[in-house]
Write a structure and sequence with these properties.
By secondary structure, the protein is of the alpha/beta class. It has two domains: 12-97 and 181-217, Periplasmic binding protein-like II (D-Maltodextrin-Binding Protein, domain 2), CATH 3.40.190; 99-179, D-Maltodextrin-Binding Protein, domain 2 (3-Layer(aba) Sandwich). 30% of the residues lie in helices and 30% in strands. Mean pLDDT is 90; it is low at 216-221. It comes from Deinococcus phoenicis. Residues 58-206 form the ATP phosphoribosyltransferase catalytic domain.
């Protein structure tokens, strides 16, 4: 494998997720002073701008690229960040793409929880262990709510935005595991090597979002 050419200290590589977060991420970063525009629809996965390279990735891959230093920084949902278990600096809660991860059951269900279905097994296991619930966790990829409706699981752990899907399927939230929104994440080494680019960007994003310091994502915390 041919090693990548070293990057200039004043050049940033950003990992941005495809889908609903991308448009808001690009708009916010442009307001923060980066020369970005929304990439035109194409098969390109890497987009070059003056002093900035954007890597367009799947949500789940953003923390990996940032943690391993391929990208200097990125934007990703807190839910994805926690589930990844990656260690990155998380200086700004950007506020958009807000939702929460909840424990969900059929309305009126009251029996013991023996099996939980979810796309978020790391978060679900941590939640259940903290409450002493010895339930089996089953990872699914599709419509998680269906697991509760068909009896595959006694409960599900899934993201909730408006709750309309739950109401339409006679489901209800039993508990909220945590709230999620889009976060700026930064590689620790890059924070030093590209300090002159990253520090002003972080401060400007804090000004634009009114955000403090949400902290560091370490082992899912």
């Amino acid at each position: 494998m041919t090693p990548a050419a070293p990057r200039s200290p004043d050049h940033l590589t950003l990992a941005l997720p495809k889908g609903r977060i991308l448009e808001e991420a690009v708009a916010l970063l442009a307001r923060a002073g980066l020369p970005l525009t929304l990439p035109e629809k194409s098969r390109a996965l890497r987009h070059e701008f003056p002093g900035v390279t954007v890597l367009e990735l799947r949500n789940q891959d953003v923390p990996v690229y940032v943690d391993l230093g391929v990208a200097d920084a990125g934007i990703v949902g807190k839910d994805v960040l926690i589930e990844s278990g990656r260690t990155v600096y998380e200086p700004v809660d950007l506020g958009f793409a807000a939702c929460h991860l909840s424990l969900i059951r059929e309305v009126g269900a009251s029996g013991p929880i023996g099996r939980v279905a979810t796309k978020y097994p790391r978060s679900a296991r941590a939640y259940l262990a903290a409450r002493g619930i010895p339930a089996e966790v089953v990872k699914l990829s599709g419509n998680i709510e269906l697991a509760a409706l068909t009896g595959l699981a006694d409960a599900v752990v899934d993201l909730v935005q408006t709750g309309s899907t739950l109401r339409a399927n006679h489901l209800e939230e039993i508990d909220v595991l945590y709230h999620s929104s889009a976060r700026l994440v930064v590689n620790r080494a890059a924070l030093k090597l590209r300090r002159e680019r990253l520090r002003p960007l972080i401060e400007r994003l804090r000004e634009l979002t009114g955000s403090g310091r949400p902290g560091t994502a370490t082992d899912g915390e």
